[in-house]
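User: Modeling request: complex.
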Amino acid sequence: MILVVMIGMSLLFAFFVNYARDFQTGSGSAVLESMVIEDVKFTDSQADVWVYNVGKVEFKINSIYINDALVDHPTLVKVTYNGVPVTPLPADDNIRDGAHAKITVNHSFEIGQSYVFKIVTERGTSVEGEYQR
Amino acid sequence: MSRLLNNRRGTAEIIGSIMFLVILLFFFTNVYMWHDNATREMNTALSERMNSQISVSWVSTAEQDGLLNVTNNGGTEVALSRLWIVSNVTQEHVYADLEGHEVWVAAGATTSIEVGYNDTRPLLEVTGSGQNVKVNYDLSDAESFRILTVRGSTAACSYVPFASLKGNITVVLVGAHSDDLPFYFKMECLENETFHETFYLDYRHASWSPPTGLGPGTYFITVEPRSGLNLVGIIGASACDLVYRKATVVVGGGQSYSVAFVYEHE
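Assistant: Request completed. Predicted assembly structure:
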């Protein structure tokens, strides 16, 4: 009986340890995320969006919305850190704190029109801004 | 109580349960304190960002050169991260990385970044550091500048070519008179009807020497890019729309008068 209780408590203990670790590295770290959109450059069918990680943890861009419509396949194409390009690009697409990242989105843009960009990270942090072509 | 203590199994279960709860409490406290610390850290970062807002203005000093004046309007010093230059000719957005060049702007202070073109250098290159940082760029393609700080604040200004800053201001002063020096012209530069910068022209400038005080009359001031405020009769011009300038003349004793003026582009 003691053995069963010990095993049960060990499993419970392991669950809490795992939960705490997941919280700290996952949704709990959302509070440490912060980013700004530093530049948006338009072409007819594409926009280059530069974001700057001013938070305390790395993050991954999960989705980008343009005028509230989800954009397919935003692509991380360039990352710089402390003025130096990061090569090769991070395999997990994570943007470390203090890094600048260029993301390309495919969408049609008309001259003179304004577009609202909303960028959402994997942990749920979002930033948005309106830019005119 | 003595019955409970004599029951070894019961005592062990209670002690074991308490220890387990203490361990769980330790973990929850740990997570809570970590979260609290993280929140405090981000609040500090946010307040530092709020307290280091910058503004930026452009002053052309020559055909292909100028100064980008970055002013820290907050109470916390901040380092500059990037200078974005947007071109209206090539539709290019290019950036100069200022990180690594130690360009700091102290609280309430202004730091100048020299931007100019030297065709012996790469088209976009940052040299120097601190107060002596220079950015090599062909300004003939420029439209606007945007500065990004390491804390994520941004400020932007338009590029105004050298030639358009030149002009003459004719100030006609009627009714104000003072024989007492000092006096000076105070030109307030407004951009989009918002205060931008103030320029002064006072009697100490070498060739600005009215014979006696300041009397009714017509005064001519040449407006040129600020190649030096020591030049006589020259007011430094900035990257703002001179149409919206307003002039005040301050005479001895501190009285000030608004004056009508006409600005004509050269």
